[in-house]
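User: I've been trying to design a sequence by hand for this structure and keep getting stuck. Would you show me what you'd pick, starting by listing the structure so we're on the same page?

Assistant: Good idea, let's start from the same input. This is the structure you sent:
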């Protein structure tokens, strides 16, 4: 069976799972949100990283039903956490370009929130710049409409690839996520570290929340805090955890 067929079977057999990684506000010293990350547990292939199958899922358009499942599952877990007393938590969900290009994407998002009785501002959609390469105006209109309804938009993997600073003025971005590839340079005073400092400054000046991804060490955390970075996501606080483990982790954290 090729991987495309295997992915369809995986959907039917419910072999997909979400894991969650906390996002910590350093000033408030609180967990403010979680990012939902997709995992495929294949009986034949074992654990398969989304890096391996997202592209295939996009090419075969399986990402549409799969993305809908991700959104619903992440919202269901958020609702559960709100009911357990973690009412302040937000949920970040990765959205593929193909999902965003669906005519009914905005309705799907709003309807999903409504069906769980969740406020729009507790959902953040993570997009990458690849989203912006195609149908630029069309996509911006959609993102603006979502933002107008109070849904947050995060620009993921910022600082890599082709992301241009001018995107920031044209898009309704609420959060900038500094790519984890920058973390190796911290705090060595290299050009990469200088870029991180400037990204933080630009984000703040534009009233965005700035979050650093892939933070593993205390010294990175201290440096980011000193530079005014709001939020941290990374192994330093926790690896992505299965829902049950995340519930326990949250209960233990402060
Ligand atoms: O968690 P991990 O490092 O394995 O994720 C690898 C990549 O897969 C990340 O870049 C992440 O953005 C992407 N990814 C994870 N979950 C999803 C998802 O639900 N949908 C989409 N489109 N991408 C995801
Ligand atoms: O592209 P995106 O930012 O969505 O991907 C996040 C990915 O980074 C996930 O696959 C997650 O498992 C991984 N990740 C999260 N925290 C860390 C970390 O501290 N170090 C490293 N190397 N990877 C991390
Ligand atoms: Na992401």
């Amino acid at each position: 069976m090729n991987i495309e067929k295997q992915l369809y079977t995986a959907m039917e057999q419910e072999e997909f799972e979400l894991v969650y990684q906390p996002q910590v506000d350093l000033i408030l010293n609180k967990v403010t949100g979680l990012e939902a990350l997709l995992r495929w547990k294949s009986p034949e292939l074992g654990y398969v990283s989304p890096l391996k199958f997202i592209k295939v899922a996009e090419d075969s358009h399986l990402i549409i039903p799969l993305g809908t499942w991700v959104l619903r599952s992440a919202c269901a877990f958020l609702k559960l956490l709100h009911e357990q007393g973690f009412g302040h938590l937000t949920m970040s969900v990765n959205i593929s370009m193909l999902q965003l290009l669906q005519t009914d994407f905005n309705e799907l998002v709003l309807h999903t929130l409504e069906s769980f009785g969740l406020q729009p501002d507790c959902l953040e959609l993570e997009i990458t710049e690849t989203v912006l390469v195609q149908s630029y105006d069309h996509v911006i209109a959609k993102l603006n409409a979502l933002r107008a309804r109070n849904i947050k938009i995060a620009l993921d993997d910022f600082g890599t690839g082709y992301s241009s600073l001018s995107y920031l003025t044209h898009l309704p971005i609420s959060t900038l996520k500094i790519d984890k590839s920058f973390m190796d340079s911290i705090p060595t005073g290299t050009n990469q570290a200088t870029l991180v400092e400037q990204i933080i400054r630009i984000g703040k000046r534009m009233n965005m929340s700035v979050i650093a991804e892939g933070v593993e060490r205390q010294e990175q955390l201290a440096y980011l805090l000193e530079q005014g970075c709001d939020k941290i996501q990374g192994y330093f606080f926790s690896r992505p955890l299965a829902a049950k483990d995340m519930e326990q982790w949250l209960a233990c954290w402060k």
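That's my pick for every position. To get oriented when you compare it with your attempt: Residues 3-247 form a domain with the TIM Barrel fold (CATH 3.20.20.450). The two ends are 48 Å apart (CA to CA).
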